[in-house]
Each structure stands twice: as C-alpha cells, then as structure tokens.
Design brief:
The protein has 471 residues and is α/β, with parallel strands linked by helices. The chain folds into two domains: 4-172 and 329-401, Periplasmic binding protein-like II (D-Maltodextrin-Binding Protein, domain 2); 175-328 and 408-464, D-Maltodextrin-Binding Protein, domain 2, CATH 3.40.190.10. The chain contains 19 helices and 13 strands. It has helices at residues 7-19, 69-85, 100-110, 134-144, 149-152, 179-184, 194-208, 220-232, 249-265, 277-283, 295-303, 305-309, 342-357, 359-365, 381-386, 404-407, 419-426, 429-439, 444-464, and strands at residues 58-64, 89-95, 116-119, 156-157, 162-163, 166-171, 175-178, 289-291, 311-314, 326-327, 330-335, 371-372, 408-409. The chain has a six-stranded mixed beta sheet, with helices on both faces. A three-stranded antiparallel beta sheet has the order 8-7-9. It is globular, with a radius of gyration of 22 Å.
Length: 471
C-alpha cells in the first residue's frame, strides 16, 4: 500500500500525467541519437513536504538483461537516482531471461531475496507467494489512464479478482522479413496473410534456396509463433470462460497449415531452434521471414547499416477468415514477493509508479523496443515511429509497429493468463503438438488429441485450487 507520507509523490505524478515529455538519455550511450533529438526532463515542485523513508530502507530489483543493452545502461542509474532522492538504497541485478522463473521460485521458497522481480511473461502460477497489487494498479490507472489490455491481462487473475503483478510496458512482435527476397517473388511489402506466407515462402525456397523460420522447438519464439497461427485461424487453448477448447476444427486447420508450411518453405532446423536462431538466420541472410522483436534489427544497424536497410517489418498476418492476432514478444510484469514488508514494500510500489511516469525514458533507451502499457506516458511515441531517432531508412520503417495496438494478445487469449495457461506455456505442449504433426510422427488429429489430454489435466489441477474458472 502507498501511505499518506507519499502523497507528494502522487501529487507530482498527477501533474506529470499532463506534462511528461521525456528525460535525458545518459551520457554513456553506445549509440547516441542524432543531435536534433532532444529529450527534456520536467521537474515538478512538490507542494507538500514529505518524510523520507527510514534509514536502512533497501530496494533490491532483479530483472533480465535487456536485449537492447542501452536499456540497462539507462535503467540502473535511473533506479539508483530515485533511491538517493528518497533515502532508499537501490541495487539492480540482471540475469538471463530464462533464469527468472527459477530465481523467483527460489526466493519465494526461501522467504528472502529481491524486493521486485521483473518477469517477462504472466506469472500467475506464483500468485500464492506474491503480494496483491490491486491498489497499485488502480492508482496507476487513475493517474495515467487506460492500461493496454495485453498488460492488464498479464497481471490480473479473474478467479481471485486481484492483480498479482504490475505491468508498465510490453514489446511488439512484428514480422521481420528480407525485403529483396520477398520483392523478387511479388511481395515488395512482405506477406499480409498466412496464405501469402505460404505462397511467397515456397517461391523463395524453390527459387533462391532460402527457407523461412517459424520455430517448433521448446523456446520462446516458437511458443509465441505457434499460438499466433492458432489464434489467427480462429482457435485457442481456452475460451473467454477458461474452458479448454484446443480440440476444434479451427485448431486442426491451423495444425494442417503449419505442416504444409514446414514441408513447402522451411527446414528441419526449426525443430532445434534456440532463442537466438531466427535472429542469427535473418542477419546472415539465411532466412526470408521470422517473427521477433526489433532487437536483432537494432544490432544489425550497428554491424551493417546496408543490411539493416534490407530488413522490413510487417503486421500480424491475417488468417483464412480475416482474423489477425499476434502475441506480444514479452511483457514487463513486476511482482513483489510476500516476504517484502514495511518501508521496503512501500518503496517498491512507489518506484513502480515513478518508473511508469517516466516510461518515455524506458521506450527511448530501449530504442523503441519497449512499448508503454499506458499510452499517456509516452506522447512522443508516434513521432519516434514516424521519424526513428536511431537512424532507420526509410525513417518511418517502424511505423508499422503501431498496428500492434489493435492486434496484440496475451497468453491465454481470449481468456485470462491463469496458472493453467502458464503451465501449458512452460511445458511446451503447443509447440510439441505442431512439431509432431509437421514431422509426421502423429497425424494432426492425434497430435491435437494428445495435447488436449495433457491440457485438461493441467486445467483440472488448477481448478481444484480455485485459480481457474469454467467449473
């Protein structure tokens, strides 16, 4: 809970809601923006004098090592400067994305560890070890306006009626494609539908010997890509009431499509995909199309500007009936373990409001990789996407990312990101189903039926715990 002694912070945030412009990027930037890009800090004089946090108050933040290194260069001093202003000793530790769940599990089990943990997927399976952050979320919505549904649904559990996390931002997951290859087969702006992807992808592989890369292995990008196909073909793991509906004609059509796409336009390498595989393949010119964030493109800009110019971005692909959905790439979801108490708990929540109020700094220093959960906090975003401050050619190349606001989903869509959905995601059931059908070890019908059996067992377990609906 935010206490009365922090009323000054809330007053300042109310003013900032209308005045935020952005904050100076730190001096030590690996890639500085062009000179005409000026980021200005607005300082608000707080009319109420406040008592600082008690001596010895600590705030220990654990989060992932960002895919855009400049973000971490900015974040660490940003957090520590807030601490110095508020008499809080702030430390920031970074670990690999894949280590976050294990680290949070260990901390909850030990009853000690970080004050704040930034997860990159909805972590509802940890809900019993986390603080209820409903009041914090409602305060943020009052201060900053409507929250993006993809962030809200990645931190809220309808079965309990509480927010178990707080999400200040999310990351789009656009198509990344080789412009020259796709232009050579009649798609100068890349594919716009899954039918186009199959047609153009097959032509490129037949004519140029270059496959496309949608993974079917137990890793992040594969898990998201396969869900995108299912959603856009009209299927889903659960419905809006949290009932399992994976075994449907729409899912069958999606699985059959992926099998055909694999045989026509991919290679067996997609079954051994790692999180870096599609990035590396696109950069090397060995893949014509992938689904990913813009981080690989930002890296390529530094390595080979001309090659970066040849990378195009596209929106979510349309399914056979016009459905157009894509998952976010990752979500920023901060959680506070229950062992955090007193001034440390108050400081953790106050810092999250401060971070959200200044999220334009986060977006800028992530080189537009991060998007805000509250649009009001980054009024510059449309301008940055229209005229990329980090040198895209053409300057509006990233403007297509704006389409993600209308098509982005979340884990569990169209239902909530509940603990059962989290376990299904973590155990790779969907990518295994797709891979088995594509490799021919099972028919599409058999692969779906086996997945349904596993998913029903997981949902039954979490329903018995009272954390999933559809009773």
């Amino acid at each position: 809970m935010i206490t009365k002694k922090h009323i000054s912070l809330l007053l300042s945030l109310l003013i900032l809601g209308s005045l935020i412009l952005a904050a100076c990027a730190p001096a030590e930037q690996p890639t500085a923006p062009p000179p005409e890009v000026i980021i200005e800090t607005v300082e608000v004089q707080v009319p109420v004098e406040i008592e600082p946090y008690p001596e010895g108050t600590e705030l220990k933040i654990l989060q992932w090592s960002h895919f855009v290194p400049q973000y971490d260069v900015w974040f660490d001093p940003f957090a520590k400067n807030w601490g110095e202003t508020n008499n809080v000793a702030v430390t920031v530790d970074h670990i690999a994305l894949g280590e976050l769940s294990a680290s949070l599990t260990a901390a909850i089990d030990a009853g000690a560890g970080p004050s704040l943990v930034e997860m990159v997927f909805a972590p509802p399976q940890f809900i019993e070890g986390l603080h209820d952050l409903t009041d914090l979320n409602l305060q943020a919505q009052e201060l900053f306006g409507e929250q993006a549904e993809t962030s809200k649904m990645s931190s809220y559990l309808p079965a309990t009626g509480i927010y178990y996390g707080f999400s200040p931002g999310w990351v789009p997951d656009p198509a990344n494609y080789d412009r020259a290859m796709w232009a050579s087969v009649g798609y100068p702006t890349g594919p716009s539908s899954y039918a186009d992807l199959l047609d153009g992808g097959k032509k490129i592989k037949d004519q140029l010997g270059i496959p496309l890369g949608l993974g079917m292995s137990p890793e992040l990008d594969s898990r998201l890509a396969m869900r995108n196909v299912i959603w856009s073909f009209g299927g889903s793991v659960q419905d809006e009431n949290e009932c399992v509906v994976i075994n449907s004609p729409e899912t069958l059509e999606a699985v059959q499509y992926v099998s055909e796409l694999y045989k026509s336009a991919m290679t067996e390498e997609v079954f051994a995909w790692t999180p870096a595989s599609n990035n590396q393949g696109l950069i090397a010119g060995e893949l014509s199309y992938i689904l990913n964030s813009i981080s690989a493109y930002r890296s390529l800009q530094d390595i080979d500007a001309a090659a970066a110019d040849n990378i195009g971005f596209g929106p979510a692909l349309k399914g056979p009936r016009g459905d157009q959905y894509a998952s976010a790439h990752v979500w920023s979801v901060y959680v506070i373990p229950k062992y955090v108490e007193g001034p440390e708990l108050e400081a953790a929540q106050a810092f999250l409001l401060h971070l959200t109020a200044n999220y334009n700094q986060a977006v800028f220093n992530a080189k537009l990789y991060n998007f805000p959960a509250f649009k009001s906090t980054v009024p510059e975003l449309d301008g940055w996407l229209t005229q990329d401050p980090f040198g895209s050619r053409p300057a509006d190349k990233l403007l297509v990312l704006n389409s993600a606001w209308d098509t982005v989903t979340w884990l569990g869509f169209p239902g909530p990101a509940n603990p059962a959905i989290g376990e299904v995601f973590g155990t790779n059931i969907i990518v295994t189903m797709m891979a088995e059908a594509a490799q021919g070890t099972k028919t599409p019908e058999e692969a779906i039926a086996d997945a349904e059996t596993q998913i029903n067992a997981i949902f039954a377990k979490w329903r018995d715990a009272g954390l999933v609906g559809c009773k």
